Amino acid sequence: MNLRIPGPTPCPEEVLHAGARQMMNHRGPEFAQILRRVTDGLNWVFGASSDVLSMTASGTGGLEAAVVNTLSPGDRVLAVSIGSFGDRLRTIASTYGADVVSYATEWGEAADPAEIARRLDEDPSIKAVLVTHNETSTGVTNPLEAIATEVRARDRLIIVDAVSSMSSVPCPVERWGLDVVVSGSQKGWMVPPGLVFVYMSERAWAANAGAKMPRFYFDAAKARDSLAKLQNPWTPAMSIYYGMDRAFELMRAEGLEGIFTRHEAVAGYTRERVKSWGLKLVPTDERFASNTVTAVWWPEGVDGKAISKRAREEFGVVLGGGQGKLDGKIFRVGHLGWFTREDIVAALDVLERLLQDAKAAV
Ligand SMILES: *Cc1c(COP(=O)(O)O)cnc(C)c1O
After folding, report:
1. What is the helix (H) or strand (E) element at residue 359, kind and residue range?
2. Ligand 1: which atom is nearest the Cα of residue 196?
């Protein structure tokens, strides 16, 4: 199977085997060592000098944790959305009673840092900005560093969904001045779903002290206090930690620069290849095209779902579809985490052939 959806992503055999290890006491010394090593690995990838928290959940749980640990009901927040994951983050904030101001672009576009700056200047009561780093639904990566610069200059909090970017493309949380940053195990980390990672800056911890949104399972202060004892507050997804411990060995061997370069190079190849067939990318400005997932419009008159079905059933290539209003209109090729250029070449070879078949039939 050539699994080319943008998460869950394929895992190396040795990571899967590491995850098959027998259970141990999650409050014992052996697990403490694993948790220490995995946390060191997270700090390395995030570029964090304080410990990144890990919690047992899928990525959405981490987004919920980010919101409830820093905000109070009634707090005004600017929710920047460029696609379905940005919409999700906005919905979490409004569900917990934030006073949400929305800045949404057309899907396919990136957010404009100057527009964010303008809205913050216009409304000094905005306490935090919610933003997606890499919008997996449209294959667009926001100019996060530039956005963070504007938010920092105005001294608001910046809460970032980096679920499908962190570990695959640069996102150094301290260098860029980000406050709360969330990622999830099943995207670029080469491990199965089950863990989320939450970085909180000093500013975020200060906000946490006064944050009144209800929380229990995802209480970051509890997670931090337990981590000081090298434990989790609750029983964690231990098998995922076993796998991550191994995955970090592979990541350290490749090096962060090596990982980023591989993603950039293969993403560039993917874009050039689909454009050479006359197809159009979903990102309207290629400068913001994602290096972890490529989103492409199906050509006019072609039954994309039928092509995806053939790719899966006849060739074992599993493509991502469109989410929400893009259902049936686009396909997505995930190239994040554990993949080689050959995996992507093979998937695109199949797609090219099926597209030719479909066109011949028209
Ligand atoms: C995958 C993803 C999530 C989290 O989704 P889960 O299904 O809860 O893991 C959040 N944001 C982005 C940008 C994602 O790609």
Report:
1. helix 341-361
2. 9
